[in-house]
Design a protein that fits this description.
2 domains, three-stranded antiparallel sheet, alpha/beta, 14 helices, single chain, 19% strand, TIM Barrel
């Protein structure tokens, strides 16, 4: 492994669902775990104390965005992101591969790396696998991700094969320089929904000393059922003794279904982005706080939730905040949504420990009376 301070212990299973523990140089966390997204060194509208209060144990930052703003000079000045944002726990940083997917008109891939223009000012930059490790070392990432190529789906077999080959080459180049950085290094498996290609890629990556294996290039255009089928077929080929990370996923039902197929770690902007638009998740489905039907509603968002919004405020008050564009509305909704996600994975862990994960999965779906959080 690349980081002597990094360890994963598998503690229990229930079907394919796994209960585990990750230890890092910045402290540990239990899995399954959801990581709030703090792209620019902040989970929008929340302080580090807020994150601790809602139960976050690890957060995600972004190499591409932090490289551009505030820049490596500031990261060096502060000795990394932890001191800069005053967060003491683990930080995982994405490598930029997904940003090059989402900003594809600004990026050009070749076998050595990626040329791109900043989405901020159009300035020219280049990422190579080695440079990305160097940047993440400057950020002080607890868990680094390799530079990869993430193709949009649907994709041609040739496109998928090229992304797999480049991602493999770049993973090995990242591994070769990982000893220059203090953090653990995860490899990223690609292959779209081509199960045989994904399994071959995972087996190739797993033969090397990566601290964890991630699945990239899912939830990028395919139907949820296709993602679930891919996970069910692929996760048995992932190493049992290392964390399994499904990148950029997703809806509450996606987490529940992916955990049931053996995934350990997740991140997604959905709970925070939706919150800023007045959309909140509850055990009985999703609510739109802008809807006029909430104007006189004295109930909390979710009576079973212990977050600040649910303990102290009514749906009517939150509706009022959003209708009048008061900043407190998005903040309270963000606190609630992250509490909901972190409670969801905490409840999943308890169900796995009891050996009752499938019962838990079915009870979640039964509670979501609207049928979807999409």
């Amino acid at each position: 492994m690349t980081d002597p301070n990094f360890a994963f212990t598998l503690e229990a299973t229930s079907g394919m669902a796994r209960l585990g523990r990750v230890e890092t140089s910045r402290g540990g966390f239990d899995t399954p775990m959801f990581m709030p997204v703090g792209t620019l060194g902040t989970v929008k509208s929340l302080t580090p104390q807020d994150l601790e209060d809602v139960g976050a144990e690890i957060i995600l930052g972004n190499t591409y965005h932090l490289y551009l703003r505030p820049g490596m000079g500031v990261m060096e000045q502060f000795g990394g992101l932890h001191r800069f944002m005053d967060w003491s726990g683990p930080i995982l940083t994405d490598s930029g591969g997904f940003q090059f997917y989402s900003l594809s008109d600004l990026a050009k891939f070749d076998d050595d790396g990626v040329d791109f223009r900043s989405h901020i000012d159009g300035s020219k930059h280049r990422f190579t696998p080695e440079r990305v490790v160097e940047i993440q070392a400057t950020i002080g990432s607890t868990i680094m991700m390799q530079l990869d190529q993430c193709p949009a789906l649907p994709a041609t077999p040739k496109t998928l094969e090229q992304a797999v080959k480049r991602s493999t080459d770049w993973a090995l180049r990242s591994l070769a320089v990982a000893d220059r950085a203090p953090g653990a290094l995860f490899a990223i498996g690609q292959g779209g929904t081509d199960v045989s290609l994904r399994i071959a890629h995972i087996e190739e990556l797993s033969a090397h000393a990566f601290d964890g294996i991630a699945l990239g290039g899912l939830a990028v255009g395919e139907a949820p059922e296709d993602m679930y089928d891919t996970l069910e077929a692929v996760t048995p080929s992932m190493p049992a003794d290392r964390p399994r990370y499904l990148m950029g996923v997703g809806r509450p039902e996606d987490l529940v279904e992916a955990i049931g197929r053996g995934i350990d770690m997740f991140d997604c902007v959905m709970p925070t982005r939706n919150a800023r638009k007045g959309s909140v998740f509850t055990r009985t489905g999703k609510l739109n706080l802008r809807n006029a039907g909430h104007r006189h509603d004295e109930a909390p968002l979710d009576p079973s939730c212990g977050c600040l919004a649910c303990r102290r405020f009514s749906r009517a008050y939150l509706h009022h905040l959003f209708r009048n564009k008061e900043l407190l509305g998005p903040r309270l909704a963000t606190l609630h949504n992250l509490t909901y996600y972190l409670d969801l994975v905490r409840d999943a862990r308890a169900a796995i420990r009891r050996g009752e994960y499938d019962t838990f999965r079915r009870s979640c779906h039964a509670g979501w009376t609207g049928g979807s959080h999409g």
